[in-house]
Write a structure and sequence with these properties.
The protein is an alpha+beta fold and 77 residues long. The chain is 16% helix and 13% strand. The chain has one helix spanning 18-29; strands at 34-38, 46-50. Strands 1-2 form a two-stranded antiparallel sheet.
Length: 77
């Protein structure tokens, strides 16, 4: 497993950093499987991106699911 670090400490203030877009596009094209990224909303949490183009995609199985309730306060400006 490779670990990549974001050099910019204030990355959450950007809507989309071109370097990150380039990195993810390259990761997808090279067949990366799962990418763990920090949550922009909850700093203590992570999100996992699964590449549908990966050769390993056919190994993905949904083991469990649960209802998600979005906190409407996140949508207010």
């Amino acid at each position: 497993m490779k670990v990549y670090r974001i050099a910019q400490k204030d990355w959450r203030t950007y809507s989309a950093m071109p370097e990150l877009q380039d990195f993810v596009e390259d990761w997808v094209e090279k067949g990366g499987f799962v990418l763990k990224v920090p949550s922009a909303i909850v700093p203590e949490e992570s999100n996992y991106l699964i590449n549908p183009k990966s050769a390993l995609m056919n190994t993905v199985r949904i083991a469990n699911s649960e209802d998600f309730s979005l906190d409407e306060r996140l949508l207010k400006r």
